[in-house]
Amino acid sequence: MTAALLALVLSADGVSFERYLTDVAQHSPQLRTQRALVSQADAQVVLSRVFPEPTITAGLASLDVSFVGAQNNAAASVSQPLEWPGKRAARIDASSASRDVAMADLEDAARTVRAAAALAWIDAVSAQRVAQRQRAALDTLLDYATAANLPPP
After folding, report:
1. Dihedral sign (CA 50, 51, 54, 55)
2. What is the pLDDT of residues 37-91, one digit of tens each?
3. At 55, is the secondary structure helix, strand, or coil?
4. Of 93, 94, 123, 148, whose CA–CA distance to 10 is shortest?
5. Which terminus of the chain is more exposed, N or C, with fewer CB under 10 A?
């Protein structure tokens, strides 16, 4: 959790718990990383659906560099890779499973960040309450000292 968010909690009594959790989720580097991994997995699913592209090759098969009258040959070819039946479907299934794993990791990271933020919120509220009680006790002691005509500390 960032110090800025903790300072926000400590300085502003009007911040709601839901707003605090929203801010933590928006600014969490762990969640940004996990969201990027989900986007990457989405792109991998799209790529797995693409069929292999054909290849065009052109060139000289033989060239007479000795100039003795040998025949020059040019060659050109087009090839299309053929996949075994089920290979594309398996590739799509594998990338979809990887995307599901990335989504589960994102959900787990969100739960972890939310739990850590909730604990930090509880700690901050507890610290505020302790500080308030200490201020009230100090005020009470100062009132007693004033009533007893004692000099302030």
Report:
1. positive
2. 999 999 999 999 888 888 999 887 777 777 777 787 888 899 988 888 899 899 9
3. strand
4. 123
5. C
The length of the chain in residues reads: 153
Which segments of the chain does DSSP mark as H helices, in order?
Answer: 3-11, 17-27, 29-48, 87-147
What separation in angstroms does the CA of 53 have from each of 50, 83, 89? Answer: 9, 11, 17
Question: How far is Cα 49 from Cα 45, in angstroms, rounded to an integer?
Answer: 7
Name the pTM for this structure: 0.63
Among all chains, which residue has been given the structure tokens 């693409």? Answer: 50
Q: Where are any strands of DSSP class E within the chain?
A: 55-62, 73-79
User: Structure tokens of 110?
Assistant: 């969100």
Q: Which residue is it, tokens 């986007």?
A: 39
Alpha-carbon distances of 145 from 2, 131, 141, rounded to whole Å: 41, 21, 6
Helices 17-27 and 3-11, axial angle in degrees (round to 10): 160
For residue 95, the tally of other CB atoms under 10 A from its CB is 19
Residue linked to tokens 């739960």: 111
Per the CB < 8 A criterion, the answer to whether 64 and 72 are in contact is yes
CB 103 within 8 A of CB 31: no
Token digits for 67? 């100039």
